[in-house]
Amino acid sequence: RPPLSRTARGPAGGLHFVHLRTMGGFSGSVRALMACLCLLPAATASVTEPTDGPRLRNDKLYKFSYSAEVLIDRPRGSIEDSVGHRISSIVEANLVWRNPSSKDDQLLRILIKDVKIENVNERSDDKNIFMGTKTVDILGKDYLATLQRPIYLNWNHGKVKSLYLYPDEPSIIKNIKRGLASLFQMQLNPGSDNEVDVSGNCKVTYQIRQNQVTKIKALETCKIAKTGFTSQTKVLGVTTKATSATIYTVEDNFFKSVLAEENHILSLNAHRAFAAKIVSKQKLTFQNSEAGPKVVAGKQVASIMKKLDPKYEVSSLPAEPVKTECKNCLSLADHWKAIRKHMKPENLSSAEAGRSFLSSIQNLRRSTKEEILQILRTESAGVLPQLVDAVTFAQTPASLEAMLEYLDFKNASGTLLQERFIYACGLATHPHERMLRALLDTNKGIIGNIEIRETVVIIIGALIRKLCLSGGCKLPAVEEAKALVLEGLGKTENGSDVKMYLMAMKNARLPEGVAFLVQHAEIGRA
């Protein structure tokens, strides 16, 4: 193989990398938490861009020791006091195919084997939950077999161009594999660019000093599908900080070791003492090499993969949300029956009522429209207002559809529940376009009570504001809602309607509405 560029080689012929990046699949949904990693000092040196990328030798099997761990603690807690688990294994890598037209374009096979799960910190026997257990007992036979199914990477000049996995693998297993595959994202020359790995599409900067290459990733720039939500009101939201680093040691165009670490801190703005720190690490260390499988002849990766195993498909490298199934959870009907007494008017001032209300929202988010309608239609008048609040605050398509089917806005005598539903929409922490569309459609229909009609329009203004704050100002429903408020204020001559539209305008805070506000202030209507 051609040698590395002279200016990129260390005194012993090795090349060292420090790569700041998000720890992969193993940090999973805590990716947004963590902070303050002390970075190794590095000054950028002048380096000639190498013509070759990292490579595996033909007909060789590379063996590594591998571990991935995660720790959780208070922000100022010590590592020794943290709680965490570690997965350790042997990782084997070999070259399957090399592009005859480009030696740096390779297909790698990576296999995880001999998997063990243990505590990160030592525990006494009576506190060690892994004492006397086997990996297959913890993960289950199917999950363990899936984890030990090979990964295939199309690797070109140190960049993972394609990741091949079975499409039906569980998300958590895919994410662990994505985290390992992301360790192969590297380059041998300095500069800044956008790079895709398990964290998403992120801005990265490479620096080189003597025998060390540092890769810094701006985690706040990472673009990835959002999981969960936070309030647009800062006092009710969270503050997050994150740093990550990976150190590569490379010899002969391939790394000998990889050490990756990521730190996240999350704190609640309303109560800064309520915070958590998560530290995740990956370590990959070369052990030895031996004779391996022969490379496969061919011109394209896709055709090679079909010959190897047609069940493999290209998988995205960014992590995907892990969907957890609630085990031993009560059905909605049984859960509501258990907490119903706390929702009675005479018990609402108790702390248990608050806990019960929040737990009911979580259960409602897992429920179907039919299940929700069943308890709505059988509940008594005294408890219904609290139930309507909970159903609306669940903020799922099923809960919204259930409320719209249950409520009859033509009925002028059912205003209490109608009003509770509309105000709950206005107080929603993360409203979606469907909710705004529902209120727009309600406004177009027959509403039996004039005060309910006014409330609908006023709350439409509040939803405009919240959706705009979350980047949805150009959504079709938002555009229609803005037109409703602006045109209504411009056309109406009815005093009550003017006040209604002005209040909607106030909630929406539309810049284009300033002229209307000035106009009505001048004529004394405001």
Q: Can you describe this structure?
A:
32% of the residues lie in helices and 29% in strands. It is α+β, with helices and mostly antiparallel strands and 526 residues long. Strands 7-8-9-1-10-11-12-2-3-4-5-6-13 form a 13-stranded mixed beta sheet. The longest helix is centred in the C-terminal third of the chain and has 20 residues, at 450-469. The radius of gyration is 29 Å and the shape is elongated. The N and C termini lie far apart (80 Å).
Which secondary structure elements does this structure contain, and how are they paired or packed?
Elements: E1 14-19, E2 60-73, E3 83-99, E4 102-119, H1 135-139, H2 141-147, E5 151-156, E6 159-165, H3 171-182, E7 191-197, E8 200-209, E9 212-223, E10 238-251, E11 254-268, E12 271-291, H4 301-308, E13 313-315, H5 332-339, H6 351-364, H7 369-378, H8 384-394, H9 397-406, H10 415-426, H11 433-444, H12 450-469, H13 476-491, H14 495-508, H15 514-522
Parallel strand pairs: 1-9
Antiparallel strand pairs: 1-10, 2-3, 2-12, 3-4, 4-5, 5-6, 6-13, 7-8, 8-9, 10-11, 11-12
Tag the structure with descriptive keywords.
13-stranded mixed β-sheet; disordered N terminus; 32% helix; elongated; alpha+beta
